[in-house]
Every structure is written in C-alpha cells, then in structure tokens.
Amino acid sequence: SFQVRKATKNSTISNIRARSLNPHDFGYLINEAKKCETEPPFLIILISTTHKEFDARQAIRETWGDETTFPDVRVVTLFLLGRSTDAVLNQMLEQESQIFHDIVVEDFIDSYHNLTLKTLMGMRWVATFCAKAQYVLKTDSDIFVNMDNLIYKLLKPVTKPRRRYFTGYVINGGPIRDMRSKWYMPRDVYPDSKYPPFCSGTGYVFSGDVAE
C-alpha cells in the first residue's frame, strides 16, 4: 500500500523551484507531443523500459497499461527510453513507435546508470506536453500494477489531494559504499551518510503539477 509523507519546511515546492539543480536539456529522438491535445488525462503512466523489452511492453499494452480499460477515465501510457548504441535496436524501436505511438526517446545513452534521466525526461514531458494531467504514475516495465485499485484510490482519496501530491512507499536509508554493489554510490558523488526520505522506484504517484 502507498504511504503519504508531508514535505518538510525546508523542501517546499517554492524552494525547489528557486533554482535548477540538474538542467535536463536532452533533445527528443521520438516524441508523442500530441498525446494530450484532445483531452487532459486523469492519469499518465510513465514506464521506464529498454529496447530489448518488447515482450514486456506488449504485455503491458494488453493488460494493465491498456488505455481503453477505463472508459470513464482517460489514461495515457508512455514508455521511456534513451538512445541505444545498437543502430538496429534504434530502428526497431522507431518501427514499434509508428505502430503504437506510446514511446518517448531522448538523446542520451540508455543504460542502468541513466535511469534517473528517464525519470527527469518523463517529468519534463508531462510539464511540457500534458501539464493539465491530474495524476502521474511512474513505474518500470517489470512491474504489474493493479489499475482497478489505483484508479479507485485516486478517485476517492481520504484527504482529496489535488496539488503538490506525492505518494509511494517511503524509504529511509543511506548510500551503499560497496563497489561490488549494483547500487554503489561514490563518496565524491554523494558524501552524506543518509539520503533524505524517498519513495521506492518500484512505483509512485504524484499530481501533475509536481512535474513542473
């Protein structure tokens, strides 16, 4: 289940917007800029994926990511990728995009260490092309989401949040210093012993205005 955590006084939206810590200025190689032109969606699903995961994308399209499942609620599903070093994979992805029109690619190398760039590109896409979306779900292609439960929770939230809303499984932890670990964090990149509280990347939901 999701947990909600209020922002501290030192981490308000206005403070965060005061300056850009990490400018994200990669160009789009594949885009779906007109996805929200007709009607702002209730929910945008942003899914991090890789070029070789076609089967996973197709499974999502046919199950929980199907945009037509909820006729009374508009849902938009998008897969987020960077650029592959394999030209054949890039070409195959372009063909897939022409069929399904649910893929966004930016001009950075698609790699595990660039996963944060996919999150930023997703937020930038929402802020640029779909700013009136009510909610955004960010997750990965190896996750199954109970959409019935999620839509119900968002339509009938206890506190009726609409703006500056961010919810997920809150983690309190610190950087891993073991160089053998997949999640190794060098001290020169992040010197502190603790991270601020953060939501698990498995899946989290935020209101559309947070993407700004």
TrEMBL record:
GO BP annotations listed: lipid metabolic process; protein O-linked glycosylation
InterPro entries: Glyco_trans_31
Biological pathway: Protein modification; protein glycosylation
Subcellular location: Golgi apparatus membrane
GO terms under cellular component: Golgi membrane
Needed cofactors: Mn(2+)
The protein's enzyme class: transferase
Protein's UniProt name: Hexosyltransferase
